[in-house]
Each structure stands twice: as C-alpha cells, then as structure tokens.
Specification:
Shape: flat
Number of helices: 8
Radius of gyration: 21 Å
Strand content: 5-15%
Number of strands: 6
Structural class: alpha+beta
Number of domains: 1
Distance between the termini: 25 Å
Largest sheet: 6 strands, antiparallel
Length: 346
C-alpha cells in the first residue's frame, strides 16, 4: 500500500475519532493520553518491567503520557488520583460495532482497489521474490516496508477500535485481523497483475501485525516501536526500529532533559536497487540517533485526545521523515561502512 493510501487511512481514523470524541469509555488504555498537572498526580518510580495495574504515564510536571491499565477510581480521596473526566453512562460503554465494521471494510476495500484498479490484469500468478537477499529485486526493502507498514496499521487500528469502545484485548486482535485480511486481499489482487501473489509479502505483513500485537500486549510501546518510510521508491527509504529514550527514562525514573526528544534506532535501507548494476547496489543496516516527533508533539500539547492531535501523531509517530536522524550504515553487499549520514540522500 502506498504512502498516500496510508495517510488517507490515517486521516479517516482521525475523523472518526473526532466524531467519537475523547471521552469514549473503554478506550484502549495502552494508547490513551491523560493530561494532568503537578498538583493532580504524583509520579511513582519506574522499572524496566511493568506489573499489571502499575501506571506508566509520568514524566516531568506538565508532560504525562499513555496510561496503561489505569486502576479503578475509588470514592476515597487519593493523593495520586488522576482526573479523567466524568464517568460514562452505561449506553456509552457499548462497543460501536457499526463504525468498527465500516473501518474494517474500508481498510480492506481500499487495499483491494489499490491493487486491482491501477494495474493491467493478467491470469493469476505467483512470484517467489525471496526476502532480504542481495539478488532480490529490491534488496529486501519491499519486505521491510511490508513489515513496518503492517505494524503501523495494526497499532493504529487497535487505538481506533479502543476508541470505539472495545476492550484493549479485543481491539488488539480486531486490529491484527483487519490488517492481515487486508494484506491477504492485497496479495490475492496482486496475483491478477504483473506483480503476482507474493508469499514473502504476506509473511512480512503477518510478522508486522504480530509484532504490534506483542508490543502493545506487553505494554512496552512507550519503549520500542517501528516506523515506515515512503519517500523514494525504496532507494531513499529508511525503515527503523526505535528505542524511545523518553520511555526508557520514565521507566528508570531518570531525568534526561532534552535527550528525551531522541530515538536510538536500528535501521534497514537499500541503495542502487532495482537497477542491475551490482556495483551500485547496497543493502544497509545501520544505527542512528534521531528526533522523536512523538515526544515533541506531546510536549507541544498535541495529544491523541483531540482530532488534530491524533492526526499529527498518526504521521509523526509512524513515519521516519528524511533528514531527522544521523548515523552510520554498514553495506552488507560490499562489507563497507558509510556515514555519518541521514541514510536518505544520496
């Protein structure tokens, strides 16, 4: 699926969030932001592992993030109570199945349309493209793209289903099911075009969706994540696996100052593909330091509890924008290091 389609899907999600409203109950706690002040909440110490019921939303005064498994609010006064707005009525607690169905249908329909309308049709065919080998058409960049894309789709759909009133676990599995179904439909549709059905693409779709399920189920999405890239037909794209320094600092209860606005990332990208000049082809794995647009947006007050904040986060949290990171890359094809550079151009 192209970047344009993914952005459109994200904006549709944000629009639905605007209709649903930030007060929807049973929203997926792993993704929900709750604004508090220094007087309203007291931050506990954090560890690298989080027990059920332990909050993970504290940082500096005025900056608090995702509340994970927030305990019920009792009638007794508490010094660390968080004001999350008035209790929802019983009618509001019902999952919104119609909207959820429209979201799932829309994702699958857009994917199918993209694969079938824009290309000439052929008889059904299957292509064994390989995975990340040096002799594959795109050097594995297309497979990295499928993994990162379906991680992002699953994560965002889980957030959306949570906002539609489904429990965290239900939202997570609905998101994975919707994403994988879209990937399967996409590959079947590709089978009737020149691109062919690719088991490798479908495998990476499943791995991306499954990884999103594991990360969110373990409640470590404040520590790690994956970002996609669609800026240069693979040769200028860099896909990243990120360690979020802000989340690590919160877990350790350490003030790292402006370093919280950075990611430490492992990356994958290619150069010189898909042309046939072997001397120019590179498969690059790298390590880099880059900007955390997610943390910057939160600090600026742009949070996911508003439609505009959700829209900005869909883009800022999930896309590795060019020239926002600096690092070193190792060319697997030629055994040579490159850098420091941004990884995108040249």
């Amino acid at each position: 699926m192209s970047l344009r389609v993914r952005v459109a899907l994200g904006l549709v999600c944000a629009a639905i969030l605007a209709v649903v409203g930030p007060g929807t109950p049973r929203a997926q706690e792993a993704f929900r932001e709750v604004s508090v002040t220094r007087e309203e909440a007291t931050c506990p110490r954090y560890r690298l592992t989080v027990d059920d019921g332990e909050r993970t939303d504290c940082w500096q005064p005025g900056l608090t993030l995702a509340a994970v498994d927030e305990p019920p609010v009792s009638d007794a006064p508490r010094g660390d109570a968080v004001s999350a707005g008035p209790a929802a009525s019983p009618a509001e607690k019902k999952p919104r199945w119609l909207l959820a169905g429209l979201v799932a249908f829309g994702e699958v329909a857009v994917t199918a349309a993209k694969a079938t309308i824009t290309f000439d049709h052929t008889s059904f065919n299957v292509k064994d493209e390989g995975l990340f080998g040096a002799n594959t058409e795109f050097g594995g960049a297309d497979k990295a793209s499928h993994f990162a894309d379906y991680y992002v789709i699953t994560k965002e759909l889980a957030f959306l289903y949570g906002r539609l009133g489904f429990s965290e676990s239900t939202a997570r599995w609905m998101a994975a099911g919707t994403a994988f179904t879209g990937g399967l439909v996409n590959e079947i549709a590709d089978g009737f075009t020149k691109y062919g059905f690719s088991w490798g693409d479908l495998l990476m779709d499943a791995l991306g969706a499954g990884t999103a399920v594991l990360v969110t189920a373990a409640h470590v999405d404040d520590l790690v994540g994956f970002r996609t890239s669609h800026f240069g037909a693979y040769k200028h794209d860099v896909y990243s696996m990120d360690l979020k320094l802000a989340g690590l600092a919160r877990r350790l209860n350490v003030n790292i100052g402006p370093l919280r606005y950075l990611y430490l990332s492992a990356t994958y990208g290619v150069k010189g593909y898909p042309n046939n000049d072997v001397a120019e082809q590179q498969r690059q794995i790298g390590v880099e330091i880059g900007l955390s647009l997610e943390e910057i947006l939160n600090s600026a007050g742009a949070r996911r509890d508003t439609w505009w904040g959700a829209t900005l986060h869909i883009l800022g949290d999930n896309i590795r924008f060019p020239f926002t990171a600096l690092g070193f890359r190792y060319d697997l094809n030629h055994g040579k290091w490159h850098g420091p550079n941004s990884g995108n151009w040249p």
